[in-house]
User: Which sequence fits this backbone?
């Protein structure tokens, strides 16, 4: 009996050791986020729509990021360490964005630059927060896009765009009346309009009409535009993406609506969207942190290099934001003295602190960040002139 008892104890002990070993193997082998990278390069992932309705945004971001990575690697990398950049197309879809993130984890990314559009970004930030992976979105402007303490952004938030637009009108269009048309079903459009309306009231900007539409009815705006025409507004504020903006401009022309059209960063892309009717965008104004015809040295050099790299294609604000995003990551890594052999979580912790301590002078302006992840920088007004975006 005593011998049998000893054998039983030995068997139990062996099983405990085996289970513990299996558990440790499972933790280290399956959790890509804990030990990504190979210690010889910084692996940065990017997510955005390079196909689908918002493809122009994603392609611009991909181009801008790849240009920055190429420049940095040619200059010796980050503290002598090269960057490997991996990209996944999410088609602007929430579920596909999460799948794209998981695919990037299989490629051992350590940092995520993305996503490009707001709702996919909000979904992915829940995943990166859980993994404690550092995330910097170039253009996800919704408040929820940087909900985790691991997430920061380059662009202005939706509320800040709305406030900035109202402030600009108060200062530069005093005494003129304003109408608005916006997508109440879209977090980007509705978020900007909500803050714009509140700030307009505070700054005595008279809003004489506010017309909403939804994603199910965003092809025919004649009813809303007719009401805006009847309101006698001098300015039409349209915080929408370039696709509905092109239709709004076309239908406004058809009914003879004569106003100053004013938008935000979502209007980037409206010129090619209009095609042969691009002249309808002449005089359209928008607030953005980047103008391709800027004479500022950094912006001018970036524009020249971008056009050279992409067969004369003029960079948009989205390309500029992504270009800056890569250089911001570089600055944060250098400030933190981070190394590629760090775990994803340790790298994230180091970069979170570094972001609140650095100032980056990029092509979209001089930027600082607080722990909320929001940037501090100045918006710039642009006007579409002779088929191109020009600084005001």
Assistant:
């Amino acid at each position: 009996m005593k011998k049998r008892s000893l054998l039983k104890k030995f068997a139990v002990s062996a099983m405990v050791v085996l289970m513990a070993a299996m558990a440790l193997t499972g933790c280290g082998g399956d959790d890509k986020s804990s030990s990504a990278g190979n210690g010889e390069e910084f692996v940065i992932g990017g997510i955005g729509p390079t196909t689908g309705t918002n493809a122009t945004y994603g392609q611009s971001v991909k181009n801008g990021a790849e240009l920055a990575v190429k420049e940095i690697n040619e200059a010796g990398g980050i503290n002598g360490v090269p960057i490997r950049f991996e990209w996944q197309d999410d088609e602007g879809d929430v579920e596909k964005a999460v799948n794209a993130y998981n695919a990037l984890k299989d490629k051992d990314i350590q940092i995520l630059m993305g996503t490009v559009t707001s709702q996919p970004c909000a979904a992915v930030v829940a995943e990166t927060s859980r993994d404690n992976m550092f995330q910097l979105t170039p253009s996800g402007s919704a408040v929820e896009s940087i909900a985790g303490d691991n997430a920061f952004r380059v662009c202005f938030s939706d509320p800040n765009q709305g406030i900035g637009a109202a402030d600009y009108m108060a200062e530069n269009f005093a005494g003129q009346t304003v109408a608005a048309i916006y997508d109440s079903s879209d977090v980007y459009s509705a978020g900007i309009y909500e803050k714009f309306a509140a700030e307009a009231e505070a700054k005595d900007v008279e809003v004489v009409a506010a017309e909403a539409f939804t994603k199910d009815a965003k092809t025919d705006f004649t009813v809303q535009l007719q009401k805006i025409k009847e309101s006698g507004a001098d300015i039409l504020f349209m915080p929408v993406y370039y696709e509905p903006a092109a239709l709004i401009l076309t239908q406004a022309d058809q009914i003879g609506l004569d106003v100053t059209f004013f938008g935000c960063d979502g209007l980037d892309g409206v010129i090619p969207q209009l095609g042969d009717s691009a002249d309808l965008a002449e005089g359209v104004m928008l607030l953005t942190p980047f103008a391709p015809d800027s004479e500022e040295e950094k912006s001018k050099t970036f524009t020249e290099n971008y056009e050279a790299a992409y067969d004369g294609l003029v960079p948009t604000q989205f390309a500029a934001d992504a270009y800056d995003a890569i250089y911001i990551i570089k600055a944060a890594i250098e400030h933190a003295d981070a190394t590629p052999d760090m775990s994803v979580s340790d790298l994230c912790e180091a970069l979170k602190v570094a972001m609140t301590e650095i100032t980056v002078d990029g092509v979209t302006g001089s930027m600082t960040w607080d722990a909320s992840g929001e940037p501090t920088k100045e918006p710039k007004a642009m006007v579409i002139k002779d088929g191109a975006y020009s600084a005001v």
DSSP finds twelve helices and 15 strands in the chain. The longest helix spans residues 2-30. Confidence is low (pLDDT under 50) at residues 1-33. Residues 42-156+296-377 form a domain with the Rossmann fold fold (CATH 3.40.50.2300).
